[in-house]
Amino acid sequence: MVARDRSISVMSEPNMPVGVFFTWSMDVACKKLGLTRRHGADIEVTDNLSEVENSDLTIFGVFGPSEKGEGSSTPLISGKAKEYDSKFGSVITEMIEESYETLKCGSVVGASTPITRIVNDGMKSSVCVMGLGEEREEVSEKSMAKLGAAVAAKCCDCNAKNVSFVIDYDLSNSSFSSFVAEFYDALHSDNRYKTRDVKTKAENLELLTIVCEKGMSDEALIEKAIKTGRAYAAGIRLTKDVVNAPHNVLNSESLAKAAKRVADESGGTITHKILGKEECEELGMGAYLGVARGSETEPRFIHLTYKPPSGIVKKRVGIVGKGLLFDTGGYNIKTAMMELMKFDCGGAAAVLGAAKIIGNIAPEGVEAHFIVAACENMVNEKAMVPSDILTASNGLTIEVLNTDAEGRLTMADALVYADREAKCDSIIELSTLTGACMVSLGKKICGVWTHNDDLAKELEDVSKTTGEKSWRMPMETEYNELLKSKIADLKNIGTRYGGAIQAALFLQNFVSEDKPFAHIDIAGPVWDDAKGATGFGAKMVTEWVSRQGK
């Protein structure tokens, strides 16, 4: 029995050779954002152990010891692994006898040590053992995701064509989609801007066969899990591609076209509306347009709307992402690390990546509005300067004391739009907003600010499920006094201390007081200095949206 799915739509560039990309001429800005392709390897699921005979590499999953000292003190080899071990002279037992105590979830035995080679009908097959976690440990989405990444890493190491993963799990549960998503995500290679020394991860890999003991109890669920996992991988890949793109490729126009493709490839579940400068002016978006005046390309206000296939809507939610496609700081120009400021669109990237996923998995009961006010924060003769007064679309006036606190200005109008135009019941917003949040929480955890305890609990649960770490931060209303201007309703910065809290309080002014709203600062985890964009936020948003219709 075999379960296979190839139906997921991908945002690829079939006619774009490696190393060829669209960039500026002297007079015309880039109009197209090239995107990476999904790795071409397929995934099959079977309960037939003989399938491993066709594999170049077979990875056997084995439970490790309990950290509490409970359970077996010797390797727990069961199911298909035990059958194979008996057939080939206890090769698995011998491999892990000395390493059993260090066998954790996702760790590999036979990776750094010589891999046993089994000769079978003239064919050689490499064998290694991978830890599945502790005995009797609940199979969580987090552990399955870790295994997916570990299997992909092993495929990259050996560069095999056909790989089998033998696992004593029931794959007819939702956590298997996490394995698939992380497997493909770990194989992601961004070679868009290279012409030489181009390296593709596991470039020879064609097939991963998962051999499971009892995973074929519901083939339909397995096929759905594979499709869902691929959808997640596609969305995360899009998120990374947007953040990794340089400024001379990514601008408001090229991002808007990428957003339109998300809608076009959704199978009809997502529609798009792209507002230009005149339409934004008609809506009174003075805060957003104040920042956009410095951009080379005209502003593009992106609004994607997802509606469930059944047409039944229990809740309407809004997801707003900060879309600063490059941030020089404006006239309060940045004096260090400006080259990293392409990641200031991390919120927008996560929102579009989540929209890509939602369009493919099509959750019922929820209508979702994905909103991005896209522009750059640049310096020219039109750009805003310190002391300017901007008027947001809800009528509030804002004194600009620092042009490098521009993201909250663009999102002010985006939040008003989500509240009043899209009429969302609840709203979350993601942004790479403050260095202050990074000082507090580091580079692995995002901060969550909300007055609504129910929404805070929802986001906490989502964070635990997806593995994207978050921490609820205080909304100290006393700090509102620090945002009051002498000549306008608000000023865009407060004092040095408590800057992340003040930013959240500023944004709260643009959402109705009685409406659930959360500000999520992803400045830390959106970027990894060694690897680049992490794709952070796409899974969190997707999981939160999916739960709203239940």
Short structural description:
The chain has 550 residues and is α/β, with parallel strands linked by helices. It has helices at 79-87, 91-96, 141-158, 175-186, 219-244, 252-264, 277-282, 286-292, 346-361, 407-421, 435-441, 453-466, 499-508, 538-548, and strands at residues 42-46, 57-64, 108-109, 116-120, 123-134, 162-167, 207-212, 270-275, 300-306, 313-327, 365-377, 389-391, 397-399, 426-431, 446-450, 470-472, 490-491, 517-521, 527-528, 532-533. The two termini are 33 Å apart.
Notes on the structure:
By secondary structure, the chain is of the alpha/beta class. Helix content is 31%, strand content 21%. It has 14 helices and 20 strands. The strands form 4 sheets. An 8-stranded mixed β-sheet has the order 8-9-11-10-14-18-15-16, sandwiched between helices. Strands 1, 2, 3, 4, 5, 6 and 7 form a 7-stranded mixed β-sheet that branches. It has a 3-stranded mixed β-sheet with strand order 12-13-17. The chain starts with 41 loop residues before the first strand and ends with a helix. The N terminus is likely disordered. This is Cytosol aminopeptidase domain-containing protein. Keywords: Aminopeptidase, Hydrolase, Protease.
Task: Give a quick set of tags describing it.
Leucine Aminopeptidase, subunit E, domain 1, disordered N terminus, seven-stranded mixed beta sheet, elongated, alpha/beta, single chain, eight-stranded mixed beta sheet, 2 domains, 21% strand, 550 residues, Aminopeptidase
